[in-house]
Amino acid sequence: MAGLSIWHVLIFAIVVILLFGTSKLKNLGKDVGGAVKDFKKSIKDDETTATSNTEPRTLEHQNTNTDVNSTVKH
Prior knowledge:
Elements: H1 6-53, H2 59-71
């Protein structure tokens, strides 16, 4: 596992907890969770606005485009 055992991970976790304390880690977790939630919300909002801004193309609209293209000489 790339030279890492469970003991390495546990020692690293203990050192991080001792350095920063549980309250700072708790606040950091809340901040990261809130940022992820806001990011997901903005992505969902962008998708709904993108789908609502597009107009469905009808056959009549497509026929007018092909008529215009057929009259143009290349």
